[in-house]
Write a structure and sequence with these properties.
Length: 219
């Protein structure tokens, strides 16, 4: 009898356990591994950049993590993705920046460098061996172009040349012209080393009077 009761208790216990397991809520499905990976989604279809060699934040949606791991350019010689995930334009042209691994929509980027550049100041007078800062400004806003983006040339390096935005004068006295190249355009400025700028000739305000005397002369 003991054996029968023990066997019945085991059977009932097993059945009850089965019923309990069946009544438990279903476990949630395992997380999608794709959702745990960094991703990029663009909030607009296109972008125009007018500044060269200047990092520009990518127009991405909230939650996106722009980086070279999550997006790439099909024309890196025109637009590239830097280590911070910013877009950097290198020359005029167009490119598509695509998300990596998600199949999301690409961002169409067009690079149109500014149409007006100028060297400030446009005329420099400096002593032999001296130095001074010069800068290239772009567009109507007058914002300075990053020095590393500008190619500087000179008509006479023995008189003056530009090194990283600093104009350096040589020991020779004379005139030279510095030229800045940026975005397929050029701007120039005159440099006078040890040469005083010409002053306008003084105006002779003396006038002959009717009786032949000159105004301003003692009588």
């Amino acid at each position: 009898m003991r054996r029968v009761a023990l066997l019945m208790a085991l059977v009932v216990g097993c059945g009850g356990g089965s019923e309990k397991r069946a009544g438990q809520p279903a476990l949630p499905p395992p997380p999608d591994p794709k959702l745990d990976k960094p991703f990029v989604a663009f909030r607009q279809p296109s972008l125009v950049i007018d500044r060269l060699e200047t990092p520009m934040p990518a127009p991405v949606t909230v939650g996106s993590q722009p980086s070279p791991v999550t997006m790439e350019s099909d024309a890196p010689e025109v637009v590239s993705v830097d280590a911070t995930g910013a877009l950097v334009a290198h020359r005029a042209g167009s490119a598509k920046v695509r998300p990596i691994g998600t199949g999301g929509a690409a961002l169409s980027v067009e690079v149109r460098p500014v149409s007006v550049i100028a060297i400030v100041p446009p005329r420099i007078s400096i002593a032999p061996g001296g130095e001074t800062r010069v800068r290239l400004v772009a567009g109507g806003s007058g914002e300075a172009v990053p020095a590393k983006s500008v190619q500087w040339l000179t008509t006479d390096p023995g008189i003056a040349f530009v090194d990283g935005g600093t104009l350096r004068a040589g020991k020779r006295i004379g005139k030279a012209r510095i030229v800045a190249r940026y975005g397929g355009q050029e701007a120039s400025a005159e440099v006078l080393v040890g040469v005083k700028p010409r002053k306008a000739a003084p105006v002779d305000v003396a006038r002959s009077s009717k009786d032949g005397s000159r105004q301003g002369e003692a009588r």
